[in-house]
Design a protein that fits this description.
Layout: E1 3-12, E2 21-23, E3 32-36, E4 41-45, E5 51-56, E6 66-68, E7 77-81, E8 87-91, E9 94-99, E10 110-112, E11 121-125, E12 130-135, E13 138-144, E14 153-155, E15 164-168, E16 173-178, E17 181-187, E18 196-198, E19 207-211, E20 216-221, E21 224-230, E22 239-241, E23 250-255, E24 259-263, E25 269-274, E26 282-284, E27 293-297, E28 302-309, E29 312-320, E30 330-332, E31 341-346, E32 350-358
């Protein structure tokens, strides 16, 4: 089952880059790779790693781009958040608007119609302790927290036909909002990371799954806790996907300093591996065998591939970039050969694309 990771190409960026995003950014019918550099430059790359276009967009580092049709005109826009407190929207290479009202780093935003008016808003949290809603480059509201606000989740979690906003913060709270009105606040014993929405019980309404620095992973139906798993050590934001080919998704969650768990949707442990832990593992089939692998990147330069086989979670490959931070991996078939490649943003390097090769 073991194998190796072979580098296909790399695109060097001064200071490195966060995770890339993939989409038809110039609306020409061909997929491109959008990359935000820590040098404040936005890059569009071809699938073979060649630069198509670049421009200095920000005085601060640019987070992972969001590619979305924000005005429902059939064309994709590119939405950026930056370390200098800006949110920027482009169509292709044209800047449509730039909002500069945040006073610190802005988390990657979420795009959704939160008020049911048929037009999409942009919701973003920031290190400046605020969660803000923007429309067409203008702020429409903000909510103040006590500390850093992470990327929110948006969805109808109570079945009332209206969307709620769920946001975690370093101030140890998970807040539930309708627009800018708080409807509930849950207090944890540590920072609360990005919530995940998923229909755990298949009733048609999403539950909220959230990890915390207090060592817990919790699930909520509406605003009521339905289960809690206490790992004692700080827990990273999980991911969901079918990793054992049983036709049902599992929860993959990492716990500091170096443990990865696979849980069922009721929060019970199915398997674990000791040796690697990272935020929001990527789940997908990279070896073409029809079963998803788990791809984990770390803040100390490790990129590991795990596979659940016959109930045992094993590491089948690892690549090391010493003293470098590797951001969340992206998997995509960049050359249309039927196999997914792995694209990673690496601090101090840039974008690196790898292929898994079976031994």
């Amino acid at each position: 089952m073991s194998g190796s990771l072979a580098e296909i190409w790399r695109f060097n960026i001064e200071g490195g880059a966060f995770a890339p995003a993939i989409g038809d950014v110039d609306n020409n019918g061909i997929m491109e790779i959008a990359v935000g550099g820590r040098n404040g430059v936005l890059y569009y790359l071809s699938m073979d790693g060649k630069e198509i276009w670049s421009s200095k967009i920000s005085t601060g580092a640019i987070r992972t781009p969001v590619i979305s049709d924000m005005d429902d005109d059939g064309q994709l826009e590119v939405l950026l958040s930056t370390f200098d407190g800006s949110v920027i929207t482009l169509r292709g290479t044209e800047i449509l608007w730039k909002y500069t009202g945040f006073r610190a780093l802005v988390e990657p935003p979420v795009v959704d119609d939160i008020d049911g008016d048929g037009e999409k808003e942009i919701i973003a949290g920031s290190k400046d302790h605020t969660l803000r809603a923007l429309k067409n480059g203008k702020e429409i509201w903000r909510v103040n927290f006590g500390d850093w606000v992470y990327m929110p989740a948006i969805g109808d979690i109570d079945g009332d036909g209206e969307k709620e906003i769920i946001a975690g913060s370093a101030d140890k709270t998970l807040r539930f909002l309708k627009g800018d009105k708080e409807i509930a606040k849950i207090i944890f014993n540590g920072g609360v990371w990005e919530p995940i929405l998923y229909d755990l019980d298949n009733d048609g309404t999403s539950e909220v799954i959230v990890a915390s620095g207090d060592g817990t992973l919790r699930a909520f139906k509406g605003t009521s806790e339905i289960w809690k798993k206490d790992f004692v050590q700080p827990v990273f934001t999980p991911s969901l996907g079918d990793v054992n080919n049983d036709g049902k998704d599992e929860i993959v969650v990492c716990v500091q300093p170096n443990v990865t768990y696979v849980l069922d949707l009721e929060g019970d442990i199915i398997a674990k591996f000791t040796g690697i832990a990272g935020d929001r593992p990527t789940i997908g089939d990279i070896d073409g065998d029809g079963q998803n692998e788990i791809i984990i990147s770390t803040f100390n330069g490790n990129l590991a591939i795990l596979k659940l086989h016959e109930g045992i979670l094993k590491q089948i490959s690892i690549q090391r970039y010493p003293r470098m931070t590797i951001y969340k991996p992206v998997i995509f078939d960049i050359n249309n050969d039927g196999l997914n490649e792995i694209l990673i943003g690496v601090r101090g390097e840039g974008i690196i694309t790898l292929r898994y090769i079976k031994a």
